[in-house]
Amino acid sequence: MPALPDLSAIEALDAADPLRAFRERFVLPEGVIYLDGNSLGAASHAALAELDTAARQEWSQDLIRSWNTAGWFDMPVKLGDRIGRLVGAAEGQIVVGDTTSVNIYKALHAALALRPGRNVIVAESGSFPTDLYVAEGVVSTRPGTSLKLEGVDAPAIEDLIDETVAVVLVNHVNFKSGTLRDMAVLTKRIHDAGALAIWDLCHSAGALPVELDAAGADFAVGCTYKYLNGGPGAPAFVYAARRHHDNIVQPLSGWWGHARPFAMETGFAAAEGIRRFQCGTQPILSMRALKGALDIWDEVDMQALREKSLALTDLFIALVEARCGQYGVSLETTCARASRGSQVSFAHDHAYEVMQALIERGVIGDFRAPSTLRFGFTPLYTSYRDVWDAVAVLEDILASGVWKEPRFAVRAAVT
Ligand SMILES: *Cc1c(COP(=O)(O)O)cnc(C)c1O
């Protein structure tokens, strides 16, 4: 491991950071070091301006005309194409809308319908839970279908992939450990067995370069309120590779997925292309905030983003291990750069209390049950100095034992 940098070396890193100008595009409170952009990305001036225009001009003044004049109706596909650049998808394959959970439901049904005669869904026991809950729901509506889990039915996901498997639902970056999977290699393994791959990009879209088309992915879903900074509850997205479009059937066949929504026909006829993944009227105010956020993303070089993300996480790991290792924290994220997302997790027996003490001191990360301190690194608005200062606060909290004060043990509904 290289020698630890000192404060002047940290300042030199910030001065040479090609992404440093992006920070002023965001609205961040004074005195806060925000290491939770992997849960809720920061607000940007652009997103707030879009919200203001959408509410005061388009809704208030232009009213119903805005569906056409302000492009409201086409926003889901237009924004989808802009996310496409960040996740390696050519135009016409991503639509924004609904939630990740709902899009997983649609994608799982679509994949199962593309693989008649196969009835197994494979997923990970360590997955973000909603993926598993939705898979259970899908199984409950399709007699004969079953769910097999990495970590329960076999140690490695590869061991579960055989000719009975219709679809593998897999996280690109694990929400808790931050482990990054090799998308191209696993997708090939899935295809060799004749199955389809659904990639969950919640912790990789906007966190690192993703290459959906090049990897041959079949479907993907992801959030826009995490690294993409779309705002609380911003609509999710779904990707389907063009080669599948004509044969996609998804069960939430609402009017926005109809070929002619305003013909008001009695029967359903699916729209061409990715539009058939839409269901009903979308949250336009949320879409407009997302549009503002994506205006910033249009300017971002994803390779530079990845370089800074790895440098920030390398630095955080090295500083915490050197300064806090003696206080019972142990690294849960891999040191191997190729397998790391843009977050770092440490286990601690009193992770909840330690995180509450950090938040009180202005260092905002989050806690994931049962014992994980989780820190997200968002290169557009996190500096090397932030990392340095955050570790100093963590060291102080652990060394002083202040986290033992009873107020830090009180649990809120959202952790
Ligand atoms: C955050 C997250 C979700 C969230 O799903 P919603 O339906 O938007 O609440 C789903 N999957 C993963 C992997 C996540 O990290």
UniProtKB/TrEMBL annotation:
Gene3D superfamilies assigned to the protein according to its UniProt record, in alphabetical order: Aspartate Aminotransferase, domain 1, Type I PLP-dependent aspartate aminotransferase-like (Major domain)
Enzyme Commission designation: 3.7.1.3
Alphabetic keyword roster: Hydrolase, Pyridine nucleotide biosynthesis, Pyridoxal phosphate
SUPFAM superfamilies in the cross-refs: PLP-dependent transferases (SSF53383)
GO molecular function, one term: kynureninase activity
Statement: the UniProt record of this protein carries the keyword Cytoplasm: no
InterPro entries: Kynureninase, PyrdxlP-dep_Trfase, PyrdxlP-dep_Trfase_major, PyrdxlP-dep_Trfase_small
Residues that hold pyridoxal 5'-phosphate according to the record: T100, S101, F128, P129, T130, D131, D200, H203, Y225, W255, T281
Top enzyme class: hydrolase
Record PTM N6-(pyridoxal phosphate)lysine, positions in chain: K226
Cofactor section: pyridoxal 5'-phosphate
Free-text function comment from the UniProt entry: Catalyzes the cleavage of L-kynurenine (L-Kyn) and L-3-hydroxykynurenine (L-3OHKyn) into anthranilic acid (AA) and 3-hydroxyanthranilic acid (3-OHAA), respectively.
Family per similarity comment: Belongs to the kynureninase family.
Protein name: Kynureninase
Gene: kynU
